[in-house]
Structure formats: structure tokens, C-alpha cells
Amino acid sequence: MKQLRIISTLVAIVLMGISTHAQLPSKRVLTLNVAKKIAEAAEAEALKRGATVVIAVVDDGGYLLVLERLDDTQVASVEVGIAKARTAAIFRRPSKVFEDQVKEGRVAALGLPGAAPLQGGVPIVYEGKVIGAIGVSGNTPQEDEDIAKVGAMAIDKAIQGDAK
User: Fold this and answer.
1) Is 0.70 surpassed by the pTM of this model?
2) Which position among 18, 90, 125, 143 has the lowest Cβ density within 10 Å, counted as fewest Cβ atoms?
3) Residue 137 to residues 65, 79, 104: CA-CA distances in angstroms?
4) Residue 129 bridge partners (DSSP)
5) Domain 32-163 - what CATH class?
6) How far apart are CA 18 and CA 29, in angstroms?
7) Number of other CB atoms surrounding residue 144 within 10 Å
8) What whole-number distance in Å separates Cα of residue 30 and Cα of residue 39?
9) Quick one: angle between helices 32-49 and 141-153, nearest 10?
10) Quick one: DSSP state of residue 62?
11) Is the distance from CB of 78 to CB of 54 less than 8 angstroms?
């Protein structure tokens, strides 16, 4: 009887371990190498346009992985670019969403912790999940966002190149 109880307990522990393991999701993360390639794509677009910008790439928690300040870019754009990227990462949407909310009269958006309501931050999406974001600052809001979009859209090519 005692052995049966021990065996039953062991089986229950094993089954709990299997079911617990099966419930843990896997998560894709933005690697430094891929983040660098995303920044390179944005930099190429900026240079093509003759833009002087800061390019910031962050992970899904909004923490900085790559920062580039192109020659002759104003120093103030460093923190702004990081804030735009962080906003896009932690809220999982473009930072322009919050700028539009403020423009439309929802000033409460200014009080959201970690939200920079400035156009130019774009999420980096892979397999339907936000794995990071890119923020660009230094030129017009639309140009900043356009450059950021080029970087964000380079995710698949950056990952394929990283696998080689």
C-alpha cells in the first residue's frame, strides 16, 4: 500500500512537471547582431535621404541595444530617439499613436508612464510578436518615422543573414 502511494505520488509529480513545462511559452528575442542590421538598414535609408538622425534599437522591454548618431546630428536627438523606440516597444504600437491622441485632445496620454508622444518610433515585429522597436529622431516627424519603418521592415532579411 505504501509503495502504491509512493508510485502514485511520483507519477503525479512527473505529470505536473510535464504539464507545467508544456504551458511555458517560447519567446523570440532581438539579438544584438540582428539589431545592428536593422540599424544599418535605417542608416542606409537616412544617408540616401541626406538625413541627420539618431537611430535607436531597443529590445521588447525598451532597453537599448544599438545607438547610432549620424554625423552632424543634434545631440538632443539621442534621448528623443531612445524614448521613441522605448514607447513603440513597451506599448507595442508606433509612438505616433500617442502624438495623434494628444492632437485629438486626449491630453491624458501625456501622463502614460514611459510614453513619448512623438512620431518616429516603430515596433519591430517578427512572427506576429513585437520583439523590439526602432526610434529615429533628428528630422521631420514623418521622415523620422519613414526611416524607422525601413529599419523595422528589415527584420526578416536581418534574421536570414544572421542564420548564415
Assistant:
1) yes
2) 18
3) 16, 9, 23
4) 126
5) alpha beta
6) 25
7) 30
8) 12
9) 140
10) S
11) yes
